[in-house]
Amino acid sequence: MRDVFIIGTGIVPFGRYPDLLLEDFAKEAVTEAVGDAGLGARRFDMAIFGHSNGGRVAGQRVLRELSLTGMPILNVENACAGGGTSLHVGWMAIASGLHDLALVVGMEKMERGLIPPNPGEYESFLGKTLPAKYALRARKHMQRYGLTIEQLAQVSVKNHSAGALNPNAHYQQEVTLEEVLASRPIAEPLTLLQCCPTTDGAAALVIASAEVADQLGRRGVRIAASVLKSGIYRNSSTDATASDDDLAERAAAAAYEMAGLGPSDIDVAEVHDAFTIGEILAYENLGFCERGEGGRLVDEGVTALGGRLPVNTSGGRLSMGHPLGATGVAQVVELTRQLEGRAGARQVPRARAALAHVQGGSTPGIGTGAAAVHILTTEETTSVH
């Protein structure tokens, strides 16, 4: 397999665009990424668009606005993992030698309120919504390992602090622990400020072979690993311990093996924090700490800006917002800029290896869902684990 490099990034501020069509703001992210790569009039070999609500041929509609037509254009839906899946598809195309230059876009225009359940998810119609599912996972962790409501809430405090430094975040203000705990109850123990907002947004990446990256002088950030995994069916009615933690664990293990790195080599990470407990679980599933120790990482400031392993320096889903198809690509935009030293006030010093984790559509026990894990490195990165 060939090396694949990220040579351009683009993103629009996440928020609400009630008066714009999806293609109106998605094309701005594409334009920025193309300009960042210094491509000029050069044409792509293919383009991949991740989205859940964009409608038919959404990618073609976006690129038509920019006169980028005629190439293979794929539209990918994989719930919250749609953006990460799109990058995996683009990576495969270049790593295999099929193509040399690809455009990867994540985009979404969201409705307010809860994400509606899939047809046939009868428990969701009866109240087991996404907030309820995550709340149950939080209660289980609290009972088994002693996770506290303060530790959960501190994840929101941390991520809003980072988001306040990010001009592309939906919410750019800090919150206190007291404000998080006092915000409106959603699904006990989760309060409003522990749940991600539904948001509009788009992000784009230009990825290329080493040859094209060298031609453009942009051989700086390499995709050292790209892994996509799906859930495994279990009879959850007889397995009281069924969860989807293994989905992220399997994806991360494969990514570390592919990159030749370990959890201790990661300098900065973006993980799926649709709810505060999601970030706690990600610490453990990705190997950043032992099972049950996620709350301790928050208490000790390990994952805050200035900590040993800053997580969600963009502000995460809690502050950035969560436009489903855009999230996985936006994470990689943030991490690429971290490795390039272009993250501004959020910059992690001497960052050389970064990990992005996004996960969606999971219903523990029934084998649905997908998780994508990408590891990015600078050229001089070597393992120290």
Question: In terms of topology, how is this protein built?
Answer:
Blueprint: E1 4-11, H1 22-37, E2 46-50, H2 58-64, E3 73-76, H3 82-95, E4 101-108, H4 122-125, H5 130-145, H6 149-163, H7 177-182, E5 185-187, E6 190-191, E7 201-209, H8 210-216, E8 221-230, H9 245-259, E9 268-270, H10 276-285, H11 294-299, H12 316-320, H13 324-339, E10 353-360, E11 370-378
Parallel strand pairs: 2-3, 2-4, 9-10
Antiparallel strand pairs: 1-7, 1-8, 4-7, 5-6, 8-11, 10-11
Helix pairs in contact: 1-2, 3-13, 6-10
Structural write-up:
The structure is a single chain. By secondary structure, the chain is of the alpha/beta class. The chain folds into 2 domains: 4-111 and 199-223, Peroxisomal Thiolase, Chain A, domain 1; 124-196 and 225-377, 3-Layer(aba) Sandwich (Peroxisomal Thiolase, Chain A, domain 1), CATH 3.40.47. The protein is built from 13 helices and 11 strands. It has helices spanning 22-37, 58-64, 82-95, 122-125, 130-145, 149-163, 177-182, 210-216, 245-259, 276-285, 294-299, 316-320, 324-339; strands at 4-11, 46-50, 73-76, 101-108, 185-187, 190-191, 201-209, 221-230, 268-270, 353-360, 370-378. Strands 3-2-4-7-1-8-11-10-9 form a 9-stranded mixed beta sheet, sandwiched between helices. A two-stranded antiparallel ribbon has the order 5-6. A hairpin with a 2-residue loop joins strand 5 and strand 6. The chain is globular and about 55 Å long. The two termini are 24 Å apart.
